[in-house]
């Protein structure tokens, strides 16, 4: 679930995004200041739009925003008030983390993609398909995990690349809009002292 807010370009609306809606036929059901966006084919909820949200909670920032448990409880109260189910759950886990490639094989249907097994903490690995020329076994880098919004506005959800499951994205410095980002292709190469599973902090890990 991604919470996104951009008052300047969208207005005082909180977007709550559950999954990628690209190429999905969808409809909207609005009650008061709450709108549910759902799939036409099966009724599954894709997103919520909560209008005049600043009257409910205090928001700071543009793009992806992170809410407190109290904020989410207040939003659920608003859903219930308008006759919807209280379906929002808060997820405070970091979405950009120090990660390490621990296994890597060539993609069977590509001449440049790799299927990487990536450690994102001490006891969890995810599969990420990556095409960076500097991807290498043992490399510590930055992974954007499902539920992340890139600075460009692109959303990270589980998906497939050339038929292979991919649960995130290994990031370049340019994609994260970091200062002094190299103008060459390739994912971030972190110092080996970086701790796998830490939330990526540009001031600590990049500066």
Task: Give an overview in words.
Helices cover 10% and strands 33% of the residues. A six-stranded antiparallel sheet has the order 3-4-5-2-1-6, with helices on one face. A hairpin with a 2-residue loop joins β3 (26-31) and β4. It has two domains: 2-81, Nucleic acid-binding protein fold (2-Layer Sandwich); 96-205, Nucleic acid-binding proteins (OB fold (Dihydrolipoamide Acetyltransferase, E2P)). It contains three helices and 13 strands, in the order βαβββββαβββββββα. It has helices at 7-10, 69-81, 202-205, and strands at 2-5, 13-17, 26-31, 34-39, 45-51, 63-64, 96-106, 114-121, 124-130, 140-144, 159-161, 164-166, 169-170. The protein is globular and about 50 Å long. With 207 residues, it is mainly beta.
What are its keywords?
six-stranded antiparallel β-sheet; mainly beta; Nucleic acid-binding protein fold; 2 domains; OB fold (Dihydrolipoamide Acetyltransferase, E2P); 13 strands; 33% strand; 207 residues; globular; five-stranded antiparallel β-sheet
Number of helices: 3
The major β-sheet equals: 6 strands, antiparallel
CATH architecture of the largest domain: Beta Barrel
State Rg: 19 Å
Instruction: Spell the H/E element sequence.
Output: EHEEEEEHEEEEEEEH
**Amino-to-carboxy terminus distance:** 30 Å
CATH topology name of the largest domain: OB fold (Dihydrolipoamide Acetyltransferase, E2P)
- Average the pLDDT over all residues and give the rounded result: 93
Number of strands: 13
Class by alpha and beta content:
mainly beta
- What share of residues are in beta strands? 25-35%
Can you tell me the CATH class of the largest domain? Mainly Beta
The gross shape turns out to be globular
- Widest beta sheet: strand line-up: 3-4-5-2-1-6
Helix content: 10-25%
